[in-house]
Amino acid sequence: MIKIKEINFQGIKQRFQVKKPWDDVIIFILNILIAIPLFIIVHQNLINPNWFLNIDRVVLFLLIIVIIQIILRFLRTIILFCIILYLLVLVYGSTIGNYGFNSVFEDYNSIMYTMSDNPYPQDIIIAKLLPFPNKSKIINAIEYQNPKIRNFAIMATSKHFKDVKGYSDYRTIIQCFAVFKEINSRWNYVSDPKARDYIATATESLLYFSGDCDDHSIVMAASIKSIGGTPRLIHTTGHIYPEILIGSLTDLEKVNFLIKNVLFVNESNENKLHYHVDERGQIWMNLDYTAKYPGGPFLSEEILGALTLD
């Protein structure tokens, strides 16, 4: 009869056990590697208390470090298995496209940058909500289904930021920023006739990229909506300007990093992002013709009305 040799689990454990002092070094490195993505996930799902100097994020990160350190010390005899498991999780996340090495790197960059360079939040200032001027004419002028508008927007996305790698979740926003760059770099402000509010259609404004603030807002909104973005028009005293939906505060962190470090590095240098937070907590970023980058300064702050194009 063939005897099956008993498996010596204790021997296997000792063989994979890391000797001192290298086990402490490996535990510390593994702790940091685990803490970073875990901190990002926890941070994105907690309400931001906005403590002074972002101390809340520092406290959260240190707390995660301590907890992981305690757990890893209990598992120090199988530390190599922990390393292999950690790498397998990230490889699996990278392979299926949910959350892997690139996502950890992008999220970490965004959070660290935002901690050192907070965007400037602009609360919604509403004096008295008024009917949106020329609402029906403006809606009809936003011809986002017109092939000319769609083709122009596609041209802009092929011309600007086409080679930006990563940030797949923000591809549409990046492409909308390409549209913004193309329109604002070519826009020529021309006043309406005296005593008359002339509303140009989006396709009309494409001919010469000229007109006043409502013409700019119309062609911007139409172009953005034609490629999947969500624009809205803001009415202030004597002015109309477009905004784009960014999403949550977590999305704002990513977009802030993209604008400042990837897309509009020179234009946004040492400048803040300007945006509005609506009643549902969603972020809307300024795309006015006076802005050199998305989130540029507001020309007028008081909001009298808003026209959202869902």
UniProtKB/TrEMBL annotation:
The chain crosses the membrane at residues 21-42, 54-72, 79-101. It comes from Flavobacterium rhamnosiphilum. The lineage of its organism: Bacteria, Pseudomonadati, Bacteroidota, Flavobacteriia, Flavobacteriales. This is Transglutaminase. Keywords: Membrane, Transmembrane, Transmembrane helix. InterPro entries: Papain-like_cys_pep_sf.
